[in-house]
Amino acid sequence: MVAGRRELLGFAAVGLLAYAVDLGLFTWLRGPAGLGPLTAKALSFVAGCSVAYTGNALGTYRHARPRGLRPYAVFFAVNAAGAAVQLLCLAVSHYGLGLTSQRADTVSGAGVGMLLATVLRFWGTRTLVFRTGTGTGDTTGSWTGASGGRVGSWTG
């Protein structure tokens, strides 16, 4: 079953906000703060993940009511996997296919990579992090419930 429009729009809005925080903080850390690129990116990535988790927990998936650090850790892992997908797309294009222009890097990393990573993040967020029961607002499948999550939410 395809996710509802409200869920998709909420996920997208939160993702855009998290992306803005990530980009803005990275730019500031690299510029005025004078940090190195890897340190700046690591800090901005953690901040972006935290904003995305909070936005999804309080907004898009507020009915799931996750508790404790485990859902955040799983959310962080899903987002790290998404980042790895983006890097893999860039590496395949740049090093494997020899497409080395800035445009090719942008298309592969920020275009194709971001699209695939977003699909992975959406799937991971709704099935691994904010588990819900089959009914709207039912929290029996949440992290605090007994059923253990959504059964067949991805495959139907």
Automatic annotation (TrEMBL):
Superkingdom of source: Bacteria
Residues covered by the GtrA/DPMS transmembrane domain: 11-130
Compartments, record wording: Membrane
InterPro entries: GtrA_CellWall_Glycosyl (IPR051401), GtrA_DPMS_TM (IPR007267)
Topology with respect to the bilayer: Multi-pass membrane protein
Keywords tagged on the record: Membrane, Transmembrane, Transmembrane helix
Keyword Ligase: no
Chief location bin: membrane
Transmembrane regions listed in the UniProt entry: 44-61, 73-95, 107-124
Family named by the database record: Belongs to the GtrA family.
Name of the protein: GtrA family protein
Lineage start: Bacteria, Bacillati, Actinomycetota, Actinomycetes, Kitasatosporales
